[in-house]
Write a sequence for this structure.
């Protein structure tokens, strides 16, 4: 949502409870309209220009066999090597610069809105797609050589982004178009949005700055890009460095069989110990999300929980074993540079810069966060007291509960209250069945089919990756997407995200076609298969898959033909999470669950009694979870406010200050969560993490429309789904999201549904 970085994929899921970190950067970056490469380079953040005419003028020339120069629809992922990056990027930047130079000549001659916007879209498309491939591989198949290649060429991509964004001739042409009676009259609503957004992005890129200020602005942007990449690398390295090899059965007491199998499999792969078994070990503990979460929830060994918790919370900090990857100095420099950049742009703080392209202002964002905080705080205190009493009186715990105890005893309480375990539930959610249920829901709501397309000429970057085609009920191809479902901590960034591979576009349509069809990829870090046992998903992993599917659907079901605002492009950051969070609600819908929840051994449907317990457990400790998200969001806004100065106050001191009103258990003195908060320091969510809650208000209200229509009224569900597809999913960035929402819902959004879904409505009244 704020200035993107390919580092953080487009659809980073929000960070959940400490024991369930869905992202370590999982997110979705709405694409800026123009230029498609700016500030922090982003695979999709740079979809813009590249005409055939300009290609002839491009220089230098890369070897024709370079897979990054392949012009087909599906990238040649497995063929890309680090040595391909430099020649391809040099050639494509040269091509894009030639196209920009031609556009600057054309606008001087009075080019109209269609000529200008088409040229803007074409200009960087090839560069954007190639750079997207490189950054995606860095996130999913990381190597030292690829890192070096990205670090070497990133400045060139950023430089072009800044140059194109701040092109004075194009900016003046857009201003002329925006205020010309004839042009305004001829513009469609989507074109008007493109022009308005491009003007805003040009101003945020310093188009009006004097020469010296512009030079400093560009230096800041380049440095921020480098720091973002370094931050992300440090988090990944710190995550990879942590390992504990366990050999005694009592050390893994309490852990579910599926986790033990995963840890034994990891030990065998790491140590080449063929005899490693779930029953007898050895077992390798890592910070991979499925392992970390299981240890926090189930490990009886309190010392193990403490060690793993502290390792996670101090990743890439001065408390890491390798202090050379401490992110604290990087955080300070990032915040300092963002403050300086805002001042150059005539704004008081980075939060103003960030919110310039969002629905909310810093003030309205903070107002909503405070409304939700007040509705949650007292209930969260009661939830903590309840947990303390349960641990003491029901389980005989003596002493003080610490942070590494919370998820463990919360799981015990949840099991007692609702009488089911996550492990019991997992058996009903094998990945293949979950996909069947997800695809059946998509067909039910939006009248499209999703079918496997692995046989098509679409290479993948890892053997686990799946490929699918989205088609109309008549069989017409509408889009494609990839799914990379499993954790690979040795090479793959943690979290979950969605990003685009190609956007829907009229102007970039292949010969004989009306449009280029969109392509997306969804990346998760779910539980992998172990031996003959298929991937069995935790319920959180199911929700995460549905979340990323929501992002994917907005991208692939767009009806917008203007490529610069099709799908996720041009959608305000605090609106773009609406479809993803909307889809999570369907994990609690009985027909949806019946279509996917079947025991992996017997094929038995999930029992009604168990499903009812899952639904009741939805609001279990909901206030605590709400406060955690609000802590992140409010801290993010405060870090980027005018009142905070990183030169005079430590970010960790500010974190503790915010925690006083946003947590009911004070953080540890050694808490360095910020050193791993990739969302805001490497993922584009700076002064924008509130977008998750802002969009959650929208998404809950959207789902409430289905509730009001009647979830058991199939005709009404289908009709409401068609309206959702036409508005929220279909219009992309071509229309103001407030109008899109009002057209679907018939009124402005309300937080009532969100509070009701979380069992917090009484606290708000």
């Amino acid at each position: 949502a704020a200035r993107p970085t390919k580092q953080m994929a487009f659809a980073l899921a929000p960070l959940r409870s400490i024991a369930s970190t869905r992202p370590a950067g999982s997110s979705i970056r709405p694409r800026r309209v123009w230029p498609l490469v700016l500030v922090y380079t982003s695979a999709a953040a740079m979809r813009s220009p590249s005409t055939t005419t300009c290609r002839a003028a491009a220089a230098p020339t890369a070897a024709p066999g370079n897979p990054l120069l392949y012009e087909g629809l599906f990238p040649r992922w497995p063929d890309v090597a680090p040595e391909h990056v430099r020649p391809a990027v040099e050639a494509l930047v040269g091509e894009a610069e030639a196209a920009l130079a031609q556009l600057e000549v054309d606008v001087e001659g009075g080019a109209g809105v269609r000529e200008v916007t088409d040229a803007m879209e074409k200009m960087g498309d090839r560069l954007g797609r190639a750079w997207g491939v490189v950054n995606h591989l860095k996130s999913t198949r990381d190597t030292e050589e690829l890192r070096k290649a990205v670090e070497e060429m990133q400045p060139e991509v950023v430089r072009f982004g800044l140059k194109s964004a701040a092109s004075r001739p194009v900016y003046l042409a857009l201003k002329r178009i925006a205020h010309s009676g004839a042009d305004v009259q001829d513009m469609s609503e989507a074109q008007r949005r493109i022009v308005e957004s491009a003007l805003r992005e040009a101003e945020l890129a310093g188009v009006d700055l004097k020469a010296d200020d512009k030079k400093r602005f560009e230096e800041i942007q380049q440095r921020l890009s480098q720091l973002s990449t370094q931050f992300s690398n440090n988090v990944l390295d710190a995550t990879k460095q942590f390992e504990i090899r366990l050999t005694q059965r009592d050390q893994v007491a309490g852990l579910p069989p599926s986790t033990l199998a995963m840890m034994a499999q990891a030990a065998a792969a790491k140590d080449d110990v063929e005899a490693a078994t779930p029953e007898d070990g050895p077992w390798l503990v890592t910070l991979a999300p499925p392992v970390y979460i299981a240890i926090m929830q189930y490990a009886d060994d309190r010392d193990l929980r403490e060690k793993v918790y502290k390792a996670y919370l101090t990743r890439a900090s001065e408390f890491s074993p390798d202090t050379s990857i401490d992110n604290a100095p990087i955080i300070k420099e990032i915040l300092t540079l963002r403050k300086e950049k805002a001042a150059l742009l005539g704004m008081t703080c980075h939060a103003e810069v960030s919110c310039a392209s969002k629905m909310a202002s810093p003030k309205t964002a903070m107002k909503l966060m405070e409304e939700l905080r007040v509705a949650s705080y007292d209930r969260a205190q009661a939830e903590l007291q309840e947990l303390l009493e349960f641990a003491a009186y029901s389980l005989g715990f003596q002493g003080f509960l610490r942070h590494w105890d919370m998820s463990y005893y919360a799981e015990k309480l949840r099991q007692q209250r609702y009488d089911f375990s996550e492990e019991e539930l997992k058996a009903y959610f094998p990945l293949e069945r979950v996909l069947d249920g997800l695809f059946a829901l998509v067909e039910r709501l939006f009248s499209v089919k999703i079918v496997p397309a692995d046989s098509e000429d679409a290479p993948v970057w890892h053997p686990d990756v799946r490929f699918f085609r989205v088609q109309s009920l008549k069989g017409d191809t509408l889009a494609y997407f990839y799914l990379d479902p499993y954790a690979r901590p040795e090479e793959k960034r943690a979290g979950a995200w969605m990003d685009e591979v190609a956007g829907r576009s009229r102007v970039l349509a292949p010969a004989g076609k009306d449009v280029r069809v969109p392509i997306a990829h969804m990346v998760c870090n779910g539980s992998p298969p172990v031996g003959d046992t298929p991937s069995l998903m935790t319920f959180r992993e199911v929700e995460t898959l549905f979340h990323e599917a929501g992002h994917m659907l907005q991208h692939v079901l767009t009806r917008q033909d203007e490529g610069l605002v099709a799908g996720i492009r041009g959608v305000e950051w605090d609106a773009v999470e609406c479809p993803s969070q909307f889809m999570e609600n369907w994990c609690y819908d009985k027909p949806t669950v019946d279509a996917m929840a079947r025991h992996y051994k017997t094929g038995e449907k999930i029992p009604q009694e168990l499903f009812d317990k899952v639904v009741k457990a939805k609001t279990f400790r909901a206030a605590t979870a709400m406060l955690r998200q609000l802590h992140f969001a409010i801290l993010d806004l405060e870090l980027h406010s005018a009142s905070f100065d990183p030169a005079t106050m430590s970010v960790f001191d500010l974190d503790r200050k915010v925690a006083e009103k946003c947590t009911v258990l004070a953080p540890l003195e050694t808490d360095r969560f910020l050193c791993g908060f990739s969302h805001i320091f490497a993922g584009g969510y700076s002064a924008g993490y509130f977008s998750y809650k802002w969009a959650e208000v929208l998404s809950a209200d959207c789902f409430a429309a289905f509730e009001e229509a009647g979830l058991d009224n199939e005709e009404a569900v289908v009709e409401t789904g068609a309206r959702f597809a036409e508005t929220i999913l279909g219009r992309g960035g071509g229309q103001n999201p407030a109008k899109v929402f009002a057209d679907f819902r018939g009124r402005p959004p309300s937080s009532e549904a969100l509070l009701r879904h979380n069992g917090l409505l009484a606290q708000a009244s």
Q: What stands out?
A: The beta strands are 244-246, 283-285, 448-452, 466-472, 477-486, 497-502, 519-526.
